[in-house]
Specification:
Blueprint: E1 8-15, H1 21-32, E2 37-39, E3 48-56, H2 62-66, E4 70-78, E5 80-81, E6 92-93, H3 102-111, E7 114-118, E8 127-128, E9 131-132, H4 133-138, E10 148-161, E11 164-171, H5 177-188, E12 192-202, E13 205-206, E14 211-212, H6 213-223
Parallel strand pairs: 1-14, 3-12
Antiparallel strand pairs: 1-3, 2-3, 4-11, 4-12, 5-6, 7-10, 8-9, 10-11, 12-13
Helix pairs in contact: 1-6
């Protein structure tokens, strides 16, 4: 009798809007009926795009996937900010951005490209003293966040219209695009927040190669039905 090889699989999934990364893991775990399922890099609920899910023996590859360069596209809104630097929290007006030119924005973007120090947002899953900082933020508790070195290889403005900026960013593990929105707004002295975000690439894996979640779940269930 032939010995059965340990199961392992990698899924490239286009994470739906408003789903947490763990929601997707849970859905795949339930379809596979195994516990060993994890994701290789969180996407916020208000972000969409490429999420790598590893199952079975492939969970050993998660750290390797997480270390790869990421690419994102999305939109920043100038002239206002929010507590979370995205649309999770109410918008707070800061200053009129109508005087800004594309040249002003590109000068600020240049300062946020390359090796930079970045303070993660308070509404993030980073742990400080063993607690997720977003849990403290939701209770109104301030947590001291130290700047972290990150690398932004490319920060391209693809559209600038009134108070909206579309961008494409290639960056290292640990880079927060919401923090780039905050820092850009501070450099321009008008405030900024992120209104849309899509992860388009993780290393050599591209969003175009991903599957929509619910059809994939149905396919997994069919493949893993008891014979």
């Amino acid at each position: 009798m032939q010995e059965q090889k340990p199961y392992g699989e990698v899924f490239l999934i286009n994470k739906p809007l408003e789903w947490t990364s763990f929601d997707v893991v849970k859905k795949v775990r339930n379809a596979l009926k195994i516990k060993k399922v994890g994701h290789a890099g969180t996407l916020d609920p208000l972000a969409t795009g490429l999420l790598i899910i590893c199952a079975g023996k492939m969970t050993k590859q998660i750290e390797g996937f997480m270390g790869k360069e990421k690419e994102y596209t999305g939109t920043f809104i100038l002239g206002a900010t929010t507590e979370s630097f995205d649309l999770e929290k109410p918008v707070i007006p800061v200053a009129d951005p109508s005087h800004l030119t594309l040249s002003d924005i590109e000068s600020a973007v240049a300062e946020l490209t390359g090796d930079i120090l970045q303070i993660p947002p308070m509404h993030s899953a980073i742990k400080v003293d063993g607690k997720r900082v977003y849990e403290s933020a939701r209770k109104g508790i301030d947590v001291k966040m130290d700047p972290r070195p990150v690398h932004v290889r490319e920060f391209e403005i693809t559209r600038f219209e009134e108070n909206e900026i579309d961008f494409r960013i290639s960056c290292s593990k640990g880079t927060y695009i919401r923090s780039l929105a905050r820092d850009l707004g501070e450099k321009l002295k008008v405030g900024a927040y992120m209104s849309a975000l899509c992860r388009t690439r993780i290393g050599e894996f591209k969003l175009q190669e991903s599957r929509e979640l619910l059809p994939l779940i149905e396919e997994i269930k069919e493949r893993h039905q008891p014979q």
